[in-house]
Amino acid sequence: MTGAAPQTYRPDIDGLRAVSILLVVLYHGFGSAVPGGFAGVDVFFVISGYLITGQIYGKCRSGDFSFVDFYARRIRRIFPPLLVVLFFVAVCGYLLLNLNDFTSLYRHIAAASVFASNFLLWNEVGYFDQQAELKPLLHLWSLGIEEQFYVLWPLLVVGLDAAARHLRGAVGLALLLVCAASLLAGIRLAAHDPIGAFYSPLSRCWELGLGGILAVWELDRVATREPVRFRLAKDAVSVAGVVCLAGCALLLGDQSRFPGVATALPALSSLAIIAAGPGARINRHLLGSRPMVWLGLVSYGLYLWHWPLLSLARIEYAGHLPAIHTWVALTASVVLATLTRRLVEIPIRNCRARSVPVWLSVALVAIGITGVLGYKSGILWPQRLAQQAGIQSQIKEAWREFDADGIPKSDCTGIVAPESVAYRNCQIWGSPAADHTVAVWGDSMSVAWMPPFFALVRDRGWRVIQFSHTGCPPIVGVWRTDRTDLDCTDATLPGQILEGIRR
Prior knowledge:
By secondary structure, the chain is mainly alpha-helical. The protein has 21 helices and four strands. Helix 1 (about 10-30) packs across helix 12, helix 1 packs parallel to helix 14 and helix 2 (about 40-60) runs parallel beside helix 6 (about 140-165).
């Protein structure tokens, strides 16, 4: 007699989902209070790998696994809430955002429609990348990794089952080797490309696979009556997992190298809690309690809703969101997640029409096309295009007026050394005898902001010293090593400029 199938409903796993979403939501809303809350995503990965592999392997063993049925179930589960949130964000972005943010958002909508948000975010990190908190669809990187996992993992499990059907433990061992290779690849990549390691499905696959290995082991083992000492051991394992997960939430931080060795802590903690089983006391009484189960059931919708609301609110408040508004956004996300589950998720999941997955796929393709139109053409935003052209025209006019005024320029002798890098990128506008001097220091963005300072020179007779270096951050102790064609590869440049400003 084989063990109980992992796909048998376990309330404690929904409770563990509740823990993971609480960690993520509190981290996104109040990061300093839960500095390691981002580990909640790793908990999600382990849970997802456990449940999905249990479904695949269990059906393989019974001989009725169907790829069509598997992906139809995934579409019914994943697509409906995602479509609602993408539509909401698209409308809000159209109404609220300026041209640059609008086109960036619609690019992310297009990427999300094909579950490639992680690759887009990976490629966006750089000089023109906007602040992460101001990207309403930033959180969909994890959903992208999950869906990419769902594409290849079933093929692997089904293939291994067919090849090693009569070799007990062979499938689990093979999956263990795959996960070990993924973990090593993540550690190696994190050492020289931490952003790539964070977003790469290759370096994240092992977390989902870890849960999958447990599911396979549970299905392969022979069920026997457990002695009391085993039940006590499971209680201890569950408590240890919960304590370790709490420690991760409180002690890990942004400086922790993820994914890598540190990722193993929340992943193994989650695995321990799941492995302890529904009979472990903390699983049964805490994780399996009604409030935790309810929160776990709405966790997917809550994950989708909470970040766009926080991000759009931060955009509206120029990045500084008061605590009360953070609580309002999080409360609204709980309400919306609950409504989405009742009005969208459950009805669609219960609808037995075989065409439902097809229509959901068509709808996602449609919103993806809308995203492409939003950032590739002016069809969706002619007014914003005209507005942007007007702003650019005003800036050019300000430059022309300033040049026409003939305001004197002078070199930076006496401010910075003539042989220094800073001297080549320094300009002085206005009379050296001016009563007031303003220093402008920055990258190419500072050049765009020069017209208001030109007005000070013209209208008030002030002097402006401009230190503008394309691509160079105006921060002492920070320089670039990736572009040898930029002056800011010189580590002494920020110090030179700061010393010149002090003079």
